[in-house]
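Exam revision sheet. Question 4 asks you to relate a sequence to its structure. Input first:
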Amino acid sequence: MSLPNLEPLASESLCAFAQIADKAEEKLKAPATASEDSFAVSNSLTGGKAIQNLQTISKSNQDGWRALIDEPAIARLLLEDENGEQKIFFISRQASLPLAGDTQLASYASPIGRMAALPVGDEGEIIIRGVSKRFYLVEKTSFHTCKVEGEWDSRGNEYRHESLGVFSVESLRALLALEGADAGDELDRLLEQDAATSGVVPGITHQNRTAIGLRDQPILDKFQDDIFRLPLDSQLIILGPPGTGKTTTLIKRLGQKLNKANLDEVEFKLAEANVQGLPFESNWLMFTPSELLKHYLKEAFSREQVPASNEHIKTWDAHRHDLARNSLGILKTPNGGKFTLKASMDNLAAAVLKDPRAWYEAFRQFHVQRLQAQFKQGADIVVASDDNHPLATTLTRWVVDLSHRQLADCYRDLNALEPSIKSSLDAAKASTDELLTKERNRIFNHDKDVFAQLAKFLATVQQDDDELSEDDDEFDADEAEEAASATSTELKKAVAAYVKCLKALARYKYLKRSLPKNGVAAKIRDWLNDRLPSDAVLQTIGQSISFQNGLRRFVNASKRYAFDVPTSYRLFRKTESGNTNFYKQATVNQLQLNDTEVDAVVLLMLRNGRKLLGQTFIARELNAPRFESLRNLASLFRHQIMVDEATDFSALQLACMESLTSLEALSFFACGDFNQRITQTGVRSSDQLEWVSSAIEAKKINIVYRQSRILNDFAASLLTMMGGDESALGVLPEHSIHEGVPPVLLEHATDISTAAQWVAERIFEVEQRVKQMPTIAVLVNDENDVKPMAELLTTYLEDITLKAVACEEGKALGEGADVRVFDIKHIKGLEFEAVFFVGVDTLAQQKAALFDRFLYVGTTRAATYLGMACYDVLPDKMHCLRGSFVDKW
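Answer key, structure tokens:
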């Protein structure tokens, strides 16, 4: 294949880089031309928002111009329109600005930027200012711009032409070397010509990985591009093998959608929807399985000019803990909460950890039935206490309808009845409070120290976890009374406990039932002894308290649908403790939850809260004091939710994340690979994703941009060996000429020192084969092996002035050419030029259930070089792969 003459293209491109960077610098130095004065005529309702939008746009422009100074362009396109006229566009990552002459610059996120993702020879239809135009892509050049001694250059370029073919161009500036040569020196001309043309190679060469982090892919391929430009209100998961750019597609999508200039009219309205006052640009969350990957995601977002703080990129464990403790009142704090978190508690059946759907649905149904039972009991109590009261018939009829309708919908009818219910409740409460106050004053006047003594007694009372107050006791007092008693002085708490005891005692006596023997009320009753009211007074109070107890079940009842879920779970677990399909053993401490149990409680609270927020009567009155809890729950939602390595999360966890999307946009984007699942609880199938949300669409991509042909073939053999999903096998890009080398194997290493020495020798071979030291990862099987391996490797690498760094807990990152040593569980999502396993045989023994997956994930981290060391011999399961290995490179 003859080489094309690329000197004119190189000259034009280098001039364009300089022009773009200079123009961007001028823009930054120029005074602002727009200000708040532009909106002087705005009315008071829209002016503030318009000014805020202007300020946001101004900052976005400035950030974009700064980025153009460092990276003027990522591609050059030669397009032909419907009239046969050809135009040249330079493409940047995010920003755009007008240039002099015929040179045009467009953002990749813009409509014209979509052409950069097409294969040369394809046509694309672009909507520009509402007008549809078709373009034919004649030629495309991708850049990696840099400055060398103050002069612009671009290294590692790819040139594609519809008829000339595909070429790799090492350096644009090197192509211009002939221009300055002395015409009289023929030898110099020949030498420079040889140097220049040697940098142009047919096909796509491999760029050696010299920096750790997520691979930078400035322009997506056609399939990735279609995905990242989907509407804002899409729900999608990208499935594909390692190295296909799944995470990059997520990041670029977010970058594109955060710029309102890229949104269509429908998307813009969604973006303008107020989600608890947060600016759209920062109203998003991305979840990742590990702290290490979180760090590299931040770097990748920075390249795309998307500010990403710890408030935006989170591990699910950290965010769940914050939700459960500080927002939803599940975990205990000094001011509330019901449970403590005990992550190590092993009480759930293996089937639940593998697939929690049946267990969760049983719990959800238990919660609904419990609330329905409360309503039925409430109506029965009202009828029994005062069958002539007008509400007795009304509430009885309402309860009959419960079995035929969704509970969330029934609250709408109940909302219309609340005024009359509250009126009757207030009247009954006033008369009862008078009697209770009289009894309280009676014992105080008899003994001024009685409540101080009761406070001391209460401090000694230990409530049995298995004898907590009965479910209907909570309706003996209203929310205001409960809140006051929870935040009062010890003396006030003692008085409140006395009143609560009398209410319970009176109601139980009226119903001819006995108080729970180990409950607090029974203990206070026994302590009071002869200071209790007479039976006649208790009967009178009991009848009124029962009536109130019945009515309270119908007041602000919708709140319990979302926020009484923790209590339902405690009762559900107690009821189902003997069900071996759900629990392997009875829970010793009823006030402890493990991670999966917290996930289930969080999910049901979020889902039920969303159903309530979708009710018109609540949306209309959301700012009312009684809906404060729902307002707080709504503040947890975000315009966009992203999930990286989704298959490492359980169906419950993914459903929780999806339930954090705003009710308006419902925007949920995830990526993952079932073959790469390295957790026991991770999702295993498409039907589990369907359960998370029926709106989630799965898109598959399979072009691998990471591995050599030899390592990609080896990964395919691994998939066959492990019985994985071979339909998710990666395919190398067309025109790739990255052949690579076979993996190397060491057996009978006997100890860690021998293995470390072998790895060091192979690293020396790698460095001999490349121009610059590439990224290298050494994977060990346990956190305790990380530091010893790093120390030994450093000793063996001293002769070539390299060192190894221990990336303990996946947090230490090392610098430059350092060799990184990781526990294998921390390397998900990363990419290295060379990867070495140490102790493959012991990995097979120690992590038998997930050995195949760890092996596959670790192998697919490597771009070119892969090594495996065994302390004994290759595991039996891998014998079919023995022929793929060599001894050394």
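Marking note for examiners. Confidence is low (pLDDT under 50) at residues 34-47.
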